[in-house]
TrEMBL record:
UniProt-listed SUPFAM superfamilies: P-loop containing nucleoside triphosphate hydrolases (SSF52540)
Protein name stated in the entry: AAA family ATPase
Record-linked PANTHER family: DNA 3'-5' HELICASE, UVRD / RECB / PCRA DNA HELICASE FAMILY MEMBER
Annotated organism of origin: Streptosporangium oxazolinicum
Gene3D superfamilies the UniProt entry points to: P-loop containing nucleotide triphosphate hydrolases
InterPro entries: DNA_helicase_UvrD/REP, P-loop_NTPase
Superkingdom, natural source: Bacteria
Length: 673
C-alpha cells in the first residue's frame, strides 16, 4: 500500500513507518520531476502571435523554475491523519508545494492550502478534526525521523516537539531559509491574514517577523494568484545585503516572480553626503505642503490670450477667459494632467468660436488645436512643464522662493538648513542626497499619479522617514501592506516612536498592529543581556522572551589586546558547527580584518552577502541578519559612533542564534554593567 494511503496507526513498528514515509518521499520526488518535465515539454508555439508567444514562454519558464526540486530541502515536513468519518482525505502530507502523480492524485499538499492550516493551528483542545499530526526530521534532504502528536484524546497539553526544536536550532550557513516547517500559531494567524488587511508586526529579535512577512507574501500569491499577478507584490528591505540574505526564501516556496528592492532602489540611488539635521527636516511630513506650493507657484497668472489662425480665419480666446480656466484647474488636478486639460479647454473655446461662424469641427480638430503652436506656447508660459529636480533645485537655491513656499510650515532655522550653501548651476548638475529621493518621489506623484501595487512588504519600517513611508504608501494605495519592524531597533535620527505614526504616513491608519514577543532563535541568556538596553532605547516595549534557555551561550570578556582576543574567539567559533559573524564598529572593519588575516574570511559589503562561514560585519549592516556564533568587538565604540548608538548595539547583540561573545577593551556601556 503506498505511503499516502496508510491508515493512522501509531502502534506500528517505527522502522516500518519510517521506511514507508521514505518511500512516500521518493514517490513524491519522482512525481515532482515528472511535473517539471511535463512543464518543460510544453511549447509556446500555440500562441497566435509573436508577442503572445513570448509572454507564454515566460510563463512556462517560470513554471519550470517554480517546480525545481531543491535536494537539500524537505519536500514535505508534516502529515495530518483526519478523524474517522471526516469528509476530507484521510491522510494529508503538508509541504512547500503541491505535488501530484500522473493520475492527479495529491501526494503533497501546499502548506498554504486551507486544509493545511490544521498542521499549524490544531491542538488537543481544538483538534480541527485531526486525529494525528506527524512531524518529520531531516538531515539534508534525507528523512531521518518522525514524531507523532495525538490530538483526539482530550485537552492535555502537548510536550515540546523535539523535531520542531531541532529544526529551529539547526545551525545554518548562507542565506536565510524558509520556516514553513516551524511556523507557530500566532505567526500563522499573521501569515494567513486576508489580502485586504494591512498588518503591522512589532517583532522582538528572534521572533521571526521577517520570515512571517515573506511567508505572508507567498500565502497571498497562492490565494490571490490572478489578482496579484496583474498588480504585483514587492518586498522592501533596508539594504542590498539584507535582500541577498533573504533572496532564497520565496523561490524555495515556489514564488519566483516577486520584486525585492530597497527604498533607495525605488526612490533613486542618490548618495550625496548630507548633514543628518538636514535629512531630518527633509524627511518630516511637514515638508509636503511646502513641496506642493513650490510646484504650483510655477503656474503664473495669464496676461494674454490665444490667437489661433486657420487659413484666413482668426479665432481669439481672451486673456480673462484663460485666467478663468487656469483658476478653475489650479490645485484640483495633478500638475501634469492639468497642463493637458488646459490645452484641451483652450482648444474647446477655439472650437466654440468656429461653431459660432457656422463651422462643424470634430474631436480631431480640437486635438489639432490643442497641439498647435499658439496653444502650446501659452500653456508653456502659464503652466510650464516641470520635473521634480527642477522644483527642488529652485527650492534649495532661492531663499525668497523657499520662504514663500514654506509659509509657516518650516521655521526660519529649518529653511536655512535646506538652502544650499553653494547652489548647483542647474538641476542637471545638482548632487542629490538619499533624502532628496523621497522629495522627488512626492513631487513626481503631484505631477503624475504613481502606479500602485497589489501588496507591499516593508521590513525594518521603523527606520524609514515619514517621506520615505509616504513614497512606499503611494505604491500600495489601492492594495495592502505587511509592515515589519522593531521600535527598539530604530537607528536613524528619524526612527519612528510608534507604529500608529508609521501606518499614518503609509496611508493605512486602520492597519492592525500585532506584537511578537516570544523568540525562538535567540537564546534566552543572550536576549536577556541585550534587553538591559531596552529601558534606554524603547521604554514602552515589553521585554522579549525566548523559548530557548541557552545556558552558557553568553560570554563577556575584557580584552586588553583586542586583536589577539578576536583571533582567539574566531578560532574557537570555527571549531564549532555553524556560521560566524564578527560584528565590529564600522571604523574598525579594516583593522579587524587584518587581525583575522590568518583565517579565511570575508568582509560584508553593503551590496552583497558573501556566502562564507566567517564574516566581518560592519555594525551598520547587521540589522536583519543572523549567525550561529556572533563575536561583538568593543560595544562602547559602537554606541559612540552614532546618535542612536545604544539602539544599534541592541541590534548587534541580538544577531546570535547559538552563542554570543562580547569582547571589550573599553568599559562597557553603563546599561550592560
Amino acid at each position: 500500500m503506498p505511503a499516502h494511503q496508510l491508515a493512522p496507526d501509531i502502534t506500528d513498528d517505527p522502522a516500518r513507518i519510517l521506511a514507508a514515509e521514505r518511500e512516500h518521499l521518493a514517490t513524491s520526488r519522482a512525481a515532482l520531476r515528472a511535473m517539471r518535465e511535463h512543464a518543460r515539454s510544453l511549447s509556446s508555439d500555440a500562441a497566435g502571435d509573436w508577442v503572445s508567444q513570448q509572454i507564454l514562454q515566460a510563463l512556462l519558464d517560470q513554471r519550470v523554475e517554480a517546480l525545481a526540486d531543491h535536494s537539500g530541502t524537505p519536500l514535505f515536513f508534516g502529515r495530518l491523519d483526519r478523524q474517522a468519518g471526516d469528509d476530507l482525505p484521510g491522510t494529508v502530507y503538508v509541504g512547500r508545494r503541491h505535488v501530484h502523480d500522473d493520475s492527479s492524485r495529491p501526494l503533497v499538499i501546499d502548506w498554504r492550502a486551507p486544509v493545511s492550516r490544521a498542521f499549524y493551528q490544531a491542538s488537543p483542545s481544538d483538534p480541527m478534526r485531526v486525529a494525528l499530526r506527524r512531524r518529520f526530521g531531516y538531515r539534508g534532504g534525507d528523512l531521518t525521523a518522525y514524531e507523532d502528536e495525538r490530538l483526539d484524546q482530550g485537552g492535555a497539553a502537548l510536550a515540546q516537539s523535539r523535531i520542531l526544536t531541532e529544526e529551529i536550532e539547526r545551525p545554518r550557513s548562507g542565506p536565510m531559509r524558509d520556516i514553513v516547517a516551524t511556523i507557530q500559531p500566532d505567526q500563522d494567524e499573521i501569515v494567513r491574514s486576508d489580502l485586504g488587511r494591512t498588518v503591522c508586526v512589532q517583532g522582538a529579535p528572534g521572533t521571526g517577523k521577517t520570515a512571517v512577512g515573506l511567508h505572508r507574501a507567498a500565502y497571498l500569491l497562492f490565494t490571490h494568484r490572478e489578482r496579484l499577478a496583474r498588480s504585483g507584490v514587492m518586498i522592501v528591505g533596508p539594504n542590498r545585503a539584507f535582500l541577498s540574505y533573504i533572496s532564497s526564501v520565496l523561490p524555495a516556496l515556489g514564488e519566483v516572480k516577486v520584486d525585492q528592492t530597497t527604498a533607495a532602489g525605488i526612490l533613486g540611488d542618490h548618495s550625496a553626503p548630507e548633514d543628518p539635521a538636514v535629512s531630518t527636516v527633509k524627511g518630516d511630513a511637514r515638508i509636503v505642503p511646502v513641496l506642493g506650493r513650490a510646484l504650483w507657484m510655477h503656474v503664473v497668472k495669464p496676461t494674454e490670450g490665444v490667437l489661433f489662425t486657420k487659413g484666413i480665419n482668426r479665432y481669439r480666446v481672451a486673456d480673462h477667459e484663460v485666467r478663468e480656466i487656469v483658476a478653475a484647474l489650479r490645485g484640483t488636478t495633478r500638475y501634469g494632467p492639468g497642463r493637458a486639460t488646459l490645452a484641451q479647454r483652450l482648444a474647446h473655446l477655439v472650437l466654440v468660436r468656429m461653431e459660432q461662424r457656422g463651422e462643424s469641427p470634430d474631436d480631431r480638430v480640437q486635438d489639432a488645436v490643442a497641439r498647435s503652436k499658439p496653444v502650446r506656447q501659452l500653456v508653456d508660459l502659464v503652466w510650464p512643464k516641470l520635473t521634480p529636480q527642477q522644483v527642488l533645485h529652485r527650492l534649495f537655491s532661492d531663499p525668497a522662493f523657499l520662504a514663500a513656499a514654506a509659509k509657516n510650515d518650516l521655521t526660519a532655522e529649518e529653511q536655512s538648513l535646506l538652502l544650499w550653501a553653494k547652489p548647483a548651476k542647474s538641476f542637471r548638475s545638482a548632487k542629490w542626497s538619499a533624502a532628496d529621493g523621497a522629495l522627488m518621489d512626492e513631487l513626481a506623484d503631484m505631477i503624475e499619479r504613481t502606479v500602485p501595487l497589489g501588496h507591499l512588504v516593508v521590513d525594518e519600517a521603523q527606520d524609514l522617514s515619514a517621506m520615505q513611508l509616504r513614497a512606499l504608501g503611494r505604491r500600495c494605495r489601492t492594495g495592502s501592506a505587511t509592515v515589519l519592524g522593531d521600535l527598539a531597533q530604530g537607528t536613524t535620527p528619524w526612527s519612528a516612536r510608534s507604529w500608529t505614526e508609521v501606518l499614518t504616513h503609509l496611508g493605512f491608519e486602520d492597519g492592525a498592529v500585532t506584537e511578537l514577543t516570544l523568540g525562538f532563535r535567540v537564546p534566552r541568556e543572550v536576549l536577556d543581556y541585550a534587553a538591559r538596553l531596552l529601558p534606554s532605547v524603547a521604554p514602552d516595549l515589553a521585554a522579549p522572551r525566548s523559548l530557548r534557555p541557552g545556558a552558557g551561550s553568553l560570554s563577556v570578556r575584557p580584552a586588553p589586546d583586542l586583536a589577539a582576543s578576536l583571533a582567539r574567539a574566531a578560532e574557537e567559533a570555527l571549531a564549532r558547527e555553524g556560521s560566524i559573524g564578527v560584528i565590529v564598529p564600522d571604523a574598525s572593519v579594516s583593522a579587524v580584518s587584518e587581525a583575522l588575516s590568518h583565517l579565511e574570511h570575508r568582509v560584508l559589503s553593503p551590496d552583497t552577502v558573501d556566502d562564507h562561514r566567517l564574516l566581518v560585519i560592519p555594525a551598520s549592516l547587521a540589522k536583519g541578519l543572523e549567525y550561529d556564533h556572533v563575536i561583538v568587538a568593543e560595544p562602547a565604540d559602537i554606541v559612540d559612533a552614532e546618535p542612536r548608538g545604544l539602539a544599534r548595539l541592541y541590534v548587534v547583540l541580538t544577531r546570535a542564534v547559538t552563542s554570543l561573545t562580547v569582547l571589550h577593551s573599553r568599559p562597557l556601556p553603563a546599561q550592560l554593567g
